[in-house]
Amino acid sequence: MNEPLLNANAKVTGYMQVLPFGAWTVGKVLALEPFPTMSIEKDTRSGFTTIRQKATLTGLRVVFPSEDNRFLAGDTVFVMADNYAQPFAKNVYEQEGKKFILCPEALIQLVRRGT
């Protein structure tokens, strides 16, 4: 019943499976909405400039559930805002008409269930 979730238009890395009720992610990654467009916000204190995003969290909605259902589609997960500059955040994929990034589960700080 499980088939690879790949087609001519998909550029998905890692492994995903098509199930009768949709898709889910495997391999300790989550399919999340892409980061919103952000500009770098700087703080200058005592002559030192720091990036403000390092001290904030960004909420991203889960697009496809995880294999173990710890993270469900519609949940909001929060990651450090400075992760928007990481290579994984720049690779935006599209499958089943949904755009998403593949974020390592280890970067998740908080989870809010539902919509």
Instruction: Walk across the major sheet and give the strand order.
Output: 9-10-4-7-8-11
Largest sheet: 6 strands, antiparallel
How many DSSP-defined strands?
A: 11
- Compute the number of structural domains: 1
Low-confidence stretches: 1-21
Strand content: 35-45%
Order of helices and strands: EEEEEEEEHEEE
* CATH class division: Mainly Beta
Find the CATH topology: 10 Kd Chaperonin, Protein Cpn10, Chain O
Mean pLDDT over the residues: 78
The geometry reads as elongated
Radius of gyration: 16 Å
Structural class: mainly beta
> Count the helices. How many?
1
CATH architecture label name: Roll
Helix amount, in percent?
under 10%
Our measurement of the CA-to-CA distance between the termini, rounded to an integer number of angstroms, reads 30 Å
Describe the structure.
With 115 residues, the protein is mainly β. The protein has one domain (3-112): 10 Kd Chaperonin, Protein Cpn10, Chain O. The protein has one helix at 87-90, and strands at 3-4, 16-19, 22-25, 29-32, 42-45, 48-51, 57-64, 76-80, 93-95, 98-104, 110-112. The strands form three sheets. The protein has a six-stranded antiparallel β-sheet with strand order 9-10-4-7-8-11. It has a three-stranded antiparallel β-sheet with strand order 1-2-3, with no helix packed on it. The chain has a two-stranded antiparallel sheet with strand order 5-6. Mean pLDDT is 78; it is low at 1-21.
In short:
The protein is built from 1 helix and 11 strands, in the order ββββββββαβββ. The protein has 115 residues and is mainly β.
